[in-house]
Amino acid sequence: MTNLVIAEHDNASIKPATLNTVTAAVACGGDVHVLVAGEGAAAAAAAAAQIAGVSKVIHADGASLKNGLAENVAAQVLALAPGYSHILFPATAGGKNVAPRVAATLDVAQISDITKVISADTFERPIYAGNAIATVQSGDATKVITVRTTGFDAAAATGGSAAVETIAAAADNGKSRFVGSEIARNDRPELTAAKIIVSGGRALGSAEKFNEVITPLADKLGAAIGASRAAVDAGYAANDLQVGQTGKIVAPQLYIAAGISGAIQHLAGMKDSKVIVAINKDPEAPIFSVADYGLEADLFTAVPELVKAL
Amino acid sequence: MKVLVPVKRVVDYNVKVRVKSDGTGVDIANVKMSMNPFDEIAVEEAVRLKEKGVVTEVIAVSCGVTQCQETLRTAMAIGADRAIHVLTDVELQPLAVAKLLKALVDKEQPGLIILGKQAIDDDANQTGQMLAALANLPQATFASKVEVAGDKVNVTREIDGGLETLQLSTPAVITTDLRLNEPRYVTLPNIMKAKKKQLDSVTPEDLGVDVTPRLKTLKVSEPAKRGAGVKVADVAALVDKLKNEAKVI
């Protein structure tokens, strides 16, 4: 039994989500290989070889893989698929984009967002926005899986010494083309990997207030900034900051929710955080039902006070 | 150009579901059902493309039990021209739905297929990508902007860290993200008109598709409950708790 992990990377370094996925792959049993598909991604491949638990890195190198187009990456994975019992992707935008394409071509079911490996063919995954946990068993020959990164610890990024094998990239599909990207500038810790997250909701009232109130607290704590869907839809925060069922799923040590009511969809994205703090002036807000510490106060006075007290 | 829009009937997003005590699933008897929110966005986008004149016909599709016809009527009230219902009582998993849709794509030859990015019941986020793979079409998932230009379509996608734009040649598969548009409310006159629109019914056997589930659900359980929290009186007490009790800062 051999497992293939599809690395998340930016052609220069390995993204942390890869490390959690390796842990899930190790839990499935058997050898773990990592595929780094990209262009000029030798440094990322070298970094992948250092990950503890990885026995081989396959570095597919070519222009067709530069931007991670689903058609080309899926073709690359499919070319390798016959040698593997499990193919695991991190459940990131990139992984979710490609994994079902691979599964459908192999004519197997795909198992989304697993949070636990029970055995080589049985997995736990949340359904209904995290309000229920399903235990599912796959009878397919190849298990194509996406891994909820917050469900697994990160594998050690060093200590391994896997061999790197370089292979030619899959041909370009010719039906899709990368035009451009607009990546939000962010000097803060990555939302999904942050130890502390400070999150703001609709109660902030405007983009200016959002920055004015939330940013100093995040700076003080070295935290990532998150937002509820209401805050994103109202334009107070960039949409890649959205925490929830349809945004990012996070599980930091400390999650501070300021001015967030706590709709089901938001809770689905953060209720596995270790400690949850809610600051809200509505005593009935559902967020208080999951908060370890609730402060019933106006966030415009409480948050600045909190910054001062830290 | 025709557009095919698959829609799913799901438990309404405002309902807090309960897990059955015997662990066989979630209790959905007598629970309010509605169209999956991402699918509403898909229908809206298809109708807007028609209103812009780049699309000639919008066909809504739903797979499942008889009641899915209500969901199709809603899609037609938003503006879909006609509907196809694939009737089956079997539990449908994404791969089976993708195969059913593939059969319909072969038959109807749409220029675009617009799906929601995920259904809020199984949270799978697979069907669009699977359909694209089976029909050998390019895909653009998590779309926040769609522009049709001749036989190409430019799609802006929401990715981790920002946005990216792809250009696909049609036919192509697009899945919608929340920010693509705001679906319109259906009006009473449109609901009445939708009742007269054409709704065809087929079965998986008619389409030659085996829909047997591949994944077996062994059990469904409640997520671990969080311990009851406490309310603190003021900021000083909160800082004290975080430093000395939780030790997280």
Tags for this entry?
heterodimer, A: 310 residues, alpha/beta, seven-stranded parallel sheet, five-stranded parallel sheet, 8 helices, 29% strand, globular, B: 249 residues, nine-stranded mixed sheet, two-stranded antiparallel ribbon, 7 helices, 29% helix
User: Care to count the β-strands of chain B?
Assistant: 13
For the sheet with most strands of chain B, the description reads: 9 strands, mixed
Mean pLDDT of chain B: 96
Structural class based on helices, strands and sheet pairing of chain A: alpha/beta
Q: Strand percentage of chain B, roughly? A: 25-35%
Molecular shape of chain A: globular
Tell me the structural class of chain B: alpha/beta
Helix percentage range of chain B: 25-40%
Short description:
Chain A has 310 residues and is α/β, with parallel strands linked by helices. Chain A contains eight helices and 16 strands.
Present the secondary structure layout.
The complex is a heterodimer of chains A (310) and B (249).
Chain A: E1 2-6, H1 16-28, E2 31-38, H2 42-49, E3 56-61, H3 70-80, E4 86-90, H4 93-106, E5 110-114, E6 116-119, E7 122-127, E8 132-138, E9 143-147, E10 163-168, E11 176-183, E12 196-200, H5 207-221, E13 224-227, H6 229-233, E14 254-258, H7 264-270, E15 275-280, E16 293-296, H8 299-309
Parallel strand pairs in A: 1-2, 1-4, 2-3, 3-10, 4-9, 5-9, 12-13, 12-14, 14-15, 15-16
Antiparallel strand pairs in A: 6-7, 7-8
Chain B: E1 2-6, E2 9-11, E3 33-35, H1 37-51, E4 57-64, H2 68-78, E5 82-87, H3 94-108, E6 112-116, H4 127-134, E7 139-149, E8 152-159, E9 162-169, E10 172-176, H5 188-194, E11 199-202, H6 204-207, E12 215-221, E13 230-232, H7 235-245
